[in-house]
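Sorry, any thoughts here?
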Amino acid sequence: MHLTRLALTDFRSYAAADVRLEPGATTFTGANGQGKTNLVEAAYYAATFSSHRVAADAPLVRHGAERAIIRAAVTGPVRDSLVEIEVNPGRANRVRLNRVALPRPREALGVLRCVLFAPEDLAVVKGDPDQRRRYLDDLLVATRPRYAGVRSDYERIVRQRSALLKSARARGGGIPRGLEVWDDQLVATGAELTAGRLGLVAAIRPHVAVAYSAVSGAASDSALRYRPSFRGNEEPDPEPDKLAAALREELEGRQRAELERGVCLVGPHRDELELSIGALPARGYASHGESWSMALALRLAAFEVLRSGGEDPVLILDDVFAELDAGRRSRLAGLVAGAEQVLVTAAVGDDVPPELSGRRLTVADGVIADD
């Protein structure tokens, strides 16, 4: 799989841009603030309908414009596709696939698959648990797009149930009417989401271990473990019925605490993906280099899991090499050089290792040209 064309209208700094792309490595170079990251952000958005830089869509639209448009032409092993996304802040986005409007945008998920490496990845290792949950859920949706609906439904249930608990607390306590209905929905959807995450953790675990050693250049052990919000904190049985039973038991046991605090304390939104290097947690104990090795290992594991479906995802390396020492630069480049398509951004062209020599484009004042 690879991108053959990326066209933008009123996206970030671009009033208009149209880039033809080829398999192999393509590097976008130029000074900071010229629009390099905006290009690869658009490619990633075409694959995931989300940005790796911001949570809301409003910053994606060029100042003074009402909407932004992303068009991504994709060549796959079976057919070619065109994904068109109209980004409408404050309103529903519109998506067309091969010129046909889709009633639900997520129906286009999976047409383009990307794995993106960025400086923000360090937060997956060093940041709060929500960063690691997002890593799992993003990859889960990329591998099985139907989980986009499961994820969205679960987030809606948690919001509604939390609002009900908060209103009950404001009224002075007592079990609010309708809580049992939301409990049932949280149990069913939460068990499904947790089962998907557990299966994914089992799939990426060996890839993370191999990739960590390859990137770090050391034989240090790395590990990851899924820790649920259930009692015991042990990685649970992934069977959905057992997960549902455990969730319901925990809800019943913590109902008083939830009513007193007015928040939802149980469910996959409270779970943690624990990362460790040697015998110590990566968060708080790993050095800067070890943290980067772990962050890169997680992305490389995502690439391998997606690749196991029969085709390479597009690899995006957004200003990553400037963050790495020479050894990690070379080892990372060697690991990804064989991918079908690699898109790289760099302020300094010499930061990109020779293993990724290929087409070079310069970006200056929104103009993209061959080097």
